[in-house]
Specification:
Blueprint: H1 3-17, E1 66-69, E2 77-79, E3 83-84, E4 90-91, E5 98-100, E6 107-114, E7 132-136, E8 140-144, E9 178-186, E10 189-190, E11 196-198, E12 201-206, E13 209-216, E14 238-240, E15 248-256
Length: 261
């Protein structure tokens, strides 16, 4: 063995002694410290692998999503019914709000909506312009409103956590163009005694722009009152509001948010 090979062999032996060289079929380590508040070692190869989800191509939902509206049917919803268009949309028509028949807890919601245009007319202003809302558990609202060059009270504008927090920025497109909401919602937790153990949280992206990041909700949405919590179950419906404006929706899907293990 020449000098270089001998040195390499000694170095490898040293790494083996330190536990830094792995067999090709080993994924990680069990001789490293435990990660706090878990039963897993740092780089633990025995830690469960996350399940595989296939992302959707283009506007298609991911493989583990529940499709709430694909443009062909209102079967996932009760209430209304809203007008089902030939263009793959559903539109508010004054028959009341709609809500999902299925209930959800912590979830990721994707939806697309479009505010109406008024031709050469100026149209309504403030809260009267393209008003709707998406509610989790039928009580925690992310506002839908046309706020492109249309000001209103900030905690009631587009993508506000209504009556609580304005968005960080106004990411609106003009009326008549499609808006995209991606909302990550964590439901509140209540103890057996009905007391709040953990509030609800929301992260919201509007047209790909983050406007709320891990924002704590003060409670259920109220008009002209501060939000507060009342005990409810671990799941609830997702609802869309009829506020008298012909808002159109398309491509709505939801998927559960769950820990990796």
């Amino acid at each position: 063995m020449n000098g270089s090979a001998h040195a390499l062999s000694l170095a490898t032996c040293g790494l083996v002694a330190l536990g830094l060289v792995q067999q090709k079929d080993e994924l990680g380590y069990q001789d490293t410290p435990l990660i706090p508040n878990t039963r897993w070692h740092v780089h633990d190869g025995l830690r469960p692998q996350p399940r595989v989800v296939t992302p959707g191509e283009g506007t298609a939902p991911p493989s583990d999503a529940t499709v709430l509206f694909d443009g062909t049917s209102l079967d996932a919803w009760s209430g209304g019914p809203w007008t089902l268009g030939d263009d793959g949309t559903m539109t508010v028509n004054g028959k009341g709000g709609i809500q999902t028949k299925e209930e959800f807890g912590d979830c990721q919601l994707h939806l697309e909506w479009r505010a109406p245009t008024y031709g050469d007319e100026p149209g309504p202003r403030g809260q009267g312009r393209g008003n709707s809302g998406v509610f989790f558990f039928g009580r925690y609202e992310v506002q839908i409103l046309d706020c492109f060059q249309n000001e209103t009270y900030p905690d009631g504008m587009t993508s506000a956590l209504y009556g609580q927090y304005p968005p960080m920025v106004n990411a609106c497109r003009p009326a008549g163009e499609w808006m995209t909401y991606d909302i990550m919602f964590q439901a509140p937790r209540f103890g057996d005694d009905g007391r709040l153990q953990r509030p609800a949280y929301a992260t919201v992206l509007v047209n790909g722009v983050c406007v709320h990041h891990g924002q704590v909700l003060l409670g259920a949405t109220s008009h002209r009152r501060a939000g507060s919590y009342a005990t409810h179950g671990p799941t609830g419906p997702i609802s869309l509001q009829d506020h008298g404006n012909p808002i159109s929706f398309r491509n709505i899907w939801v998927r559960p948010l769950e820990r990796a293990e």
